[in-house]
Write a structure and sequence with these properties.
11-stranded mixed sheet; 3-stranded mixed sheet; elongated
């Protein structure tokens, strides 16, 4: 991608063609969740047999939706000729596949809304968003002249449309299985055409219909269930979908019709037994055998998304893909994340993968998948802070469960900058959650930090107020931090922050009245600035004294009252890591600041 930094000019170039609007926009949660589906619900990477059979990205355009939208919005019709009083009949084939170049030649493409995350989106996704925005604005502006161009783009159906969405792609039965062409999901809005081959021993995805290059192998013994996906829960209701569930992740496949989907389900049923179809496992299902099939942990627990430029990042909450959150059961965001942290803590305390822990693993992975489309906009700052603290600690524990705690300081940067969640339509690493969201209004770490601080911005997620107590309550697992964290809750957040700050300072602050010296955890004075001006070391000590033990608070008060210089030394953090426990917050008299 060619990308030129023109922050003051408002015309940043993406993928060679896509420009941004001049003003920054906040996330439109309705458009992110399902509003884009009526304009361009997906892109599909596939072989273009019309031209040298090379892989190209095609964008799915729903003909019926666009025709109806134009008719209802502009009282127009999609076919040339005199105006009609009723919408035109939908064409027999409801979907079209068009390349970006084909769309650009016909439709005037508009800039995409300017957002900080645009830099992190993949080329196919930023182009898809431009197509969505162009159709969306075209409907708003009511341009009569554009209708004929749109129809020119959509009609007639091409050979590729007929081949991919038509009824000609039957399964080929093999001696010990079957094979056929499907599209497999790589993200909520991106798919890739593959040859799916089933045998009694494994499910194999090949790069394309004419390729023998293996993309994915899944042991059939690891398959828990195979079932169709209801049309209303899919991104493209005009075609059919089925899913193959394994312990670490679920694979999603698109085919052209219900009949072809049922043929695939029949093939799975013959190979695995009918009990595997349409019936997700329950508490009585023994997952041990399926879990034992997981051999490549990093490949199966972690996934790349076709929507994002991840570089070395890996997404950890991708067992399920949430295509349309409108059909999910209503969930309280705070309770969801509290439950996730509680389950992560249970898993870290379990020594072996017994039956109970395996079921908790699956439940945990399913719960964190729901974070992909979480909407935090209704939450207050206090509610958001409690949720984000719980999420941070869950991500640290999750990373330790999968990869193990960082064994040395040289591993910290990779751990905190590569472990990522899809969260509220963003990709967020542990380091970004700490420095760019929780501590967004606070100081940046100086050169002593072993973690490269990301520069990304997350408006709408980031906290807008500075709170020095976060320095002592964000627990990375370092041995210089407390060995336990609470489940934070909005209604008691102030008391919990006070109690954890006190617990941290009681264990780490050292006072020497003879040498007039104080040793404190390494912090930045900028985080203690007030409206009266910049903080000094004496201001820091006065603030921290509230959280010390009674005897230490009295000693520090006497040292401050003597009006002599107190030498402040900063204790370097430990880069040895250990898992922390998740407990209720310490009660009064057990770690909270003592009242004088």
């Amino acid at each position: 991608r060619d990308s030129k930094d023109k922050d003051n000019e408002g015309a940043e170039l993406f993928a060679g063609e896509v420009t941004e609007s001049s003003e920054y926009s906040l996330t439109d949660y309705d458009m992110e969740a399902f509003g884009d589906l009526r304009y361009c619900p997906a892109s599909i990477e596939m072989n273009d047999f019309r031209r040298d059979n090379k892989r190209r990205v095609f964008y799915v355009l729903p003909v019926g939706e666009l025709c109806m939208a134009f008719h209802n919005q502009a009282e127009m019709h999609c076919e040339p000729g005199p105006p009609s009083q009723s919408p035109p009949a939908s064409p027999p084939l409801q979907l079209r596949l068009r390349t970006y170049a084909e769309i650009e030649r016909v439709l005037h493409l508009l800039p995409v809304p300017r957002m900080h995350k645009n830099r992190r989106l993949s080329d196919p996704e930023i182009r898809r968003r431009q197509v969505v925005e162009s159709f969306r604005q075209l409907l708003r502006t009511n341009q009569a002249a554009a209708v004929s161009r749109v129809w020119q783009l959509l009609e007639p159906a091409s050979e590729l449309d007929l081949a991919f969405f038509g009824r000609g792609r039957a399964l080929r039965t093999l001696s010990a299985g079957c094979e056929g062409v499907v599209a497999a999901a790589s993200s909520r809005r991106h798919w890739a055409e593959h040859l799916l081959v089933l045998s009694r021993t494994e499910l194999t995805l090949l790069k394309g219909p004419e390729s023998r290059r293996v993309v994915t192998r899944v042991p059939m013994g690891s398959v828990l269930s195979v079932k169709p996906i209801p049309h209303q829960e899919t991104p493209i209701p005009e075609v059919s979908f089925f899913q193959v569930e394994t312990f670490p992740r679920i694979y999603y496949f698109m085919v052209s019709s219900d009949e072809l989907r049922d043929d695939w389900l029949d093939c799975f049923g013959r190979l695995l037994g009918r009990g595997t179809l349409n019936s997700p496992f329950d508490k009585q299902f023994d997952l041990s055998a399926a879990a034992a099939q997981v051999t490549e942990v990093e490949e199966l627990y972690l996934a790349k998304s076709g929507c994002w430029r991840l570089d070395r990042k890996r997404i950890f909450n991708y067992r399920r893909i949430v295509f349309n959150p409108a059909f999910l059961p209503a969930a309280n965001p705070a309770e969801l994340v509290e439950g996730i942290l509680t389950k992560a803590a249970f898993l870290t305390s379990t020594q072996a993968m017994d039956k109970s822990s395996i079921h908790t693993w699956v439940s945990f992975l399913d719960d964190i998948s729901l974070l992909q489309t979480l909407n935090l906009s209704p939450l207050s700052e206090r509610e958001r802070a409690a949720l984000l603290l719980n999420l941070y600690h869950a991500m640290v524990l999750h990373g330790c469960l999968v990869l193990g705690p960082p064994p040395a300081w040289t591993n910290w940067n990779n751990f905190f900058n590569n472990i990522s969640y899809l969260f509220a339509y963003e990709v967020v690493t542990i380091a970004e959650l700490e420095h760019n969201i929780l501590r967004a209004q606070m100081s940046r770490p100086s050169s002593f930090s072993m973690i490269a601080v990301p520069q990304n911005q997350f408006p709408g997620l980031a906290l807008s107020h500075r709170d020095f107590r976060l320095n002592f309550c964000i627990n990375s697992g370092s041995r210089s931090l407390p060995s336990k964290v609470p489940v934070y809750r909005a209604h008691s957040l102030d008391a919990q922050l006070d109690e954890m700050t006190a617990l941290m300072l009681r264990e780490s602050v050292e006072l020497d009245s003879v040498r007039k010296a104080a040793t404190v955890p390494r912090v930045s004075l900028q985080d203690f600035n007030s409206s009266a001006g910049n903080a000094t070391n004496m201001d820091l000590l006065r603030t921290l004294s509230y959280y010390l033990r009674r005897e230490d608070r009295l000693l520090l008060a006497r040292m401050l009252s003597e009006q002599t210089h107190i030498s402040v030394r900063y204790k370097a953090p430990s880069f040895r890591c250990c898992l922390f426990a998740v407990t209720p917050p310490p009660g009064p008299g057990d770690g909270g600041p003592e009242k004088s």
